Amino acid sequence: MTIKINITEPTPEITEPANETVNIKIVDPNRQMLEFRLNMRKALNGDLMIFDHADIDIVVMLESKKIVAFAKDLMSEVVYGAESRLFDHLKKSGIVAFDSIQGGSVYGSLEAKILDSKELDSVKASLYEISQWMDGERPYFKSMEAYDEMMDDALLDPDVENSTELGEVPQETEKGSIPKKDMFGPYTYGRYLYE
Questions:
Q1: CB-based contacts of 40: which residues, under 8 Å, 6+ apart?
Q2: CA distances from 162 to 29, 131, 151, 169, 175 (A)
Q3: At what angle do helices 122-156 and 77-92 cross, to 10 degrees?
Q4: CA 150, CA 177: separation in Å to the nearest integer?
Q5: pLDDT tens, residue by residue, 126-170
Q6: 3-class secondary structure, 193
Q7: Dist. CA 4–CA 24, nearest whole Å
Q8: What does the alpha-carbon distance between residue 14 and residue 5 come to, in Å, rounded to a whole number?
Q9: Residues 17-74: tens digit of each pLDDT
């Protein structure tokens, strides 16, 4: 913490000129500095929108003291699983009320009320716990990205075993295991399909 003190009148102990800025650093051993990063924006009404997760968006509503999780694109089991894990973490951390976790007014959303605190700023504590949950989810994101890159590499640049050069497979009049002639047809005259 940095405190700036402006000296306006010279005192007998100080021989420096007036209007000088003196920086004093006060270190409190009981106070702990917590740093975290979130991809966050502020809405026009002051709500905080968090976009770090790949499947859900999280909104911390300041006026109504709620946390709401929305599906990013489509609602699926993956999205519900992420929302459920988020609110389980917040519930176990003591950020949201147990009985307030419910479906939101938007399809596929979950919401919960933030508990009031007499000691801490409840919004800052909520943001810190969301960032802690997000740190736990990051290995999942990295594994999904690595899997997608591996599949792209397998399709775009296959190895020798899984690829054939042009002209390597000879041309034939019939290909595949299902013969086209002498088969039963759905709309045929008689019993067989005629070409």
A1: 48, 49, 50, 51, 127
A2: 62, 42, 13, 13, 20
A3: 150
A4: 31
A5: 999 999 999 998 888 888 889 999 999 888 888 888 888 777 777
A6: coil
A7: 7
A8: 14
A9: 556 677 777 777 777 777 788 889 999 999 999 998 888 999 999 999 999 999 988 8
Of 95, 92, 91, 88, nearest to 60 by C-alpha is 95
Strand partners, 50: 40, 58
Scan for tokens 């609110």, then name that residue. 87
d(CA 66, CA 105): 13
The sign of the dihedral angle between the CA atoms of 102, 129, 115, 43 is: negative
Tokens 């792209």 belong to which residue? 152
According to the CATH classification, is domain 40-138 in 3.30.1490.480?
Answer: no
The strand ranges marked E within 78-166 are 102-103, 110-113
